[in-house]
Design a protein that fits this description.
There is one protein chain. The protein has helices at about 15-20, 25, 40-45, 65-70, 85-90, 110-115, 130-140, 160-165, 185-195, 215, 235-240, 260-270, and strands at about 5, 35, 50-60, 75-80, 100-105, 120-125, 145-150, 175, 200, 210, 220-225, 245. The chain is α/β, with parallel strands linked by helices. The strands form two sheets. The chain has a seven-stranded parallel sheet, sandwiched between helices. Strand 6, helix 7 (about 130-140) and strand 7 form a beta-alpha-beta unit. Helix 7 (about 130-140) runs parallel beside helix 8 and helix 7 packs parallel to helix 12 (about 260-270). The protein is elongated.
């Protein structure tokens, strides 16, 4: 039976994940939560085995788009109110009027997600959650097998990462390559080599090859490494990569957003 709870107070303790906890507080060990937005994204998370703790939705969705999820999770409390009250609660307009607090799961080891992978995306110190979500979406859509995040990279289950990825963070295998900042690049690059990957850095340097050079695309196992938009890739990473690749630019444009560059790179370097 559905557990529908009309919100009477914005101060209710059960609403803390939506109203008062920061991203850091949500993901700490005491809480171990993340927030998913929209019916489609929550469905992907449930399909991937994530456990819902509670839902928050506009009243009009109880008998609308939210009904299937409520029926799928009959024991999960569903907090509801009108749009205006919920916007005051969360501090933002809710995407499609639907949020779900869910429990995190431990990320698998890199060796597990790369066991049969031929193409992996490596995100080095990318701290913008929007870029992380967009890159993961591109990797999933364009045939990459996994994404590896360096220890200083943004949380892939940040609310904005999940939203921008359209739930593909739950569909593409993701792992951290190292647990401390000091683990990258030396230990991380060694781990990639140990798993049989050749490495291709996306960077504008004097020794960059054009991205359509046939050699990297012909590699049986290739890890494509992307860095932050501000600082780019660590010089030590560039020194250790087998290839350094660039996307030729026109009209005097110097570079692309990292997510746009990822899309071009993933399509060009996909496994044949």
């Amino acid at each position: 039976m559905a557990n529908i709870i009309e919100i009477a107070s914005l101060d209710a303790p059960a609403l803390a994940p939506y109203a008062r906890l920061t991203e850091a507080q949500l993901r700490d060990k005491a809480n171990g939560l993340f927030i998913a937005e929209s019916h489609k994204v929550v469905s992907h998370a449930l399909d991937a085995g994530y456990e819902p703790v509670s839902m928050l939705m506009e009243r009009r969705h109880i008998e609308g788009t939210g009904r299937a999820l409520i029926e799928r999770c009959p024991d999960t409390p569903v907090y509801t109110a009108g749009r205006d009250l919920l916007a005051r609660l969360t501090g933002y307009e809710m995407t499609r009027g639907f949020l779900c607090a869910m429990r995190r799961k431990p990320l698998p080891a890199p060796e597990e997600v790369c066991r049969s992978a031929r193409r992996v995306a490596v995100l080095e110190n990318i701290v913008d959650p929007t870029n992380v979500g967009a890159i993961i979406r591109c990797a999933a859509a364009l045939g990459f097998d996994a994404a590896l995040l360096t220890p200083s990279c943004c949380d892939p289950l940040h609310r904005r990462s999940i939203r921008v990825s359209m739930g593909t963070v739950f569909q593409l295998p993701i792992a951290r390559i190292g647990s401390r900042a000091a683990d990258w690049p030396e230990s991380g690059m060694n781990a990639l080599r140990g798993m049989g990957f050749r490495t291709a850095a996306m960077a504008l340097t004097d020794r960059s090859l054009a991205i359509d050079d046939p050699a990297p695309a012909a590699e049986d196992k290739l890890a494509v490494i992307l860095g932050s938009e501000g600082d780019g890739l660590d010089a030590r990473t560039l020194e250790q990569c087998d290839y350094t690749l660039r996307i030729p630019m026109a009209h005097g444009v110097d570079s692309l957003n990292v997510a746009a560059a990822a899309a071009v790179a993933f399509w060009t370097l996909r496994a044949r």
